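Fresh eyes needed here. I'd like your take on this protein's tokenised backbone:
***
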Amino acid sequence: MHAKAIRIAANGGPEVMEYVDVDVGAPGPGEILLRQHAIGLNFIDVYFRTGLYPQPLPGGLGKEGAGVVEAVGEGVTNVQPGDRVAYAGGPNGAYADLRVMPAAVVVKLPDAISFETAAAMMLQGLTVQYLFRSTYPLQAGQTILFHAAAGGVGLIACQWARALGVQLIGTVGSKEKGELALAHGAAHVINYNDEDIVARVKDITGGAGVPVVYDSVGKDTFAASLDCLQRRGLMVSFGNASGAVEPFTPGELSKRGSLYITRPTLFDYMTNQQEVEAMSAELFEMVTSGKVTINVNQTFPLAQAAEAHRALEARRTTGSTVLLP
């Protein structure tokens, strides 16, 4: 069978992405054939495209999508043909209208959640789930700092924090993005272009600082993030949208009060089907209950994936972006 897919033969800018015809075979043992209806766009796709995260080339891009199972291989029991499913993870290759992939990473999608919403929320929603429930289990009444609060992950985090009774201080790059974060449940916003992050956090917390900082920005915010933490606080560095964090010595942690630091990735929290299903069930419950609304603020045809990457990298997007086959 033929499929349309985005492939890259070399690392580089958005122009290395080619929209091509590919052959898709039958699913092997433990695999499914998935007809995709929507595909999520994430910063991790940029990291693979540029080569920051290496992969064998030529190769595909994309970590999440949603669609309908067309066929299943031997031994697959968690889904069957005709099931609506969604996923985040597995091998790269979501930028396609049809793909063969491991069955273990997909979960059945509740009827109440559309394909576009699912494709927009799996990676970002499961990221918030593991950050808030596992990396540092948040408690009602706490005040936390979350960078890039108006992005796809950020807007989900604002709402999830509010549902948990947590005061989220969100950093943003514009007045409009600040208003968006506040509307989604942030307790405070800091515009990092004209406010001092550390001074504002100390002001908001009465000088105490926060027990945890969630930082996906990387190089530009790293030092400020450490300075916002209270004694024995946790720095969660889960991305590097502004570039990789520069090397630092562990002494920087001791002189700021015996801080902890972790560099987690979602896929270390989703190591088996049970974890995937339990995390997804909690995410689906947050969304179907209305506590978390997923904002699909941009859509692009799959053929225009390069333009979608340009918009993401230029920080022209808010909320989630979906590619449509």
In short: The chain is about 30% helix and 30% strand. The CA atoms of residues 44 and 259 lie 27 Å apart.
